[in-house]
């Protein structure tokens, strides 16, 4: 999944008119309507990804940064994610069991490589449960 996310960002960067990118999971519920969210994102210089320890039920004690189901970023930060190699190589070494790669990779990269561009909050709500084995609950 990390490879897919990186390829999506790489291909999106080929079109210079793309300024912002949103990778959104089906497990996320937007906190605000589309018009408000779009306006807010276009005016912000920050990327929105949860990169903090959440003491909430079902989340505490997991690998920090918090699991990510949504990322909203601009083209400059997307370039950082696509060009990063050290965390990418290391994540594949550690990726068996301890972490859920598709949830940890981007928050970890941004925390290390671009901390000043992170808002440390998300624009969506996700329900985390221990019995989902590292994955958030799906809404239907």
Automatic annotation (TrEMBL):
Membrane topology qualifier: Single-pass type II membrane protein
Keyword Repeat (UniProt): no
One Pfam match: Branch
One Gene Ontology molecular-function label: glycosyltransferase activity
Entry-linked InterPro entries: BC10-like (IPR044174), Glyco_trans_14 (IPR003406)
GO cellular component, one term: membrane
Segments traversing the membrane: none
Chief subcellular location: membrane
UniProt entry keywords in alphabetical sequence: Glycoprotein, Glycosyltransferase, Membrane, Transferase
Compartment(s) of residence: Membrane
The protein, known as: Uncharacterized protein
């Amino acid at each position: 999944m990390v490879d897919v996310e990186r390829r999506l960002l790489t291909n999106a960067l080929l079109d210079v008119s793309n300024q912002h990118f949103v990778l959104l999971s089906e497990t996320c519920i937007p906190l605000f309507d589309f018009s408000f969210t779009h306006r807010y994102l276009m005016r912000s210089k920050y990327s929105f990804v949860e990169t903090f320890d959440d003491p909430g039920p079902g989340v505490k004690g997991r690998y920090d940064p918090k699991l990510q189901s949504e990322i909203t970023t601009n083209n400059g930060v997307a370039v950082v994610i696509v060009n990063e190699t050290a965390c990418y190589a290391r994540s594949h070494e550690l990726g068996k069991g301890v972490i859920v790669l598709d949830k940890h990779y981007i928050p970890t990269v941004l925390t290390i490589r671009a901390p000043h561009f992170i808002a440390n909050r998300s624009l969506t709500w996700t329900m985390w449960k221990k019995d989902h084995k590292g994955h958030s609950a799906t809404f239907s």
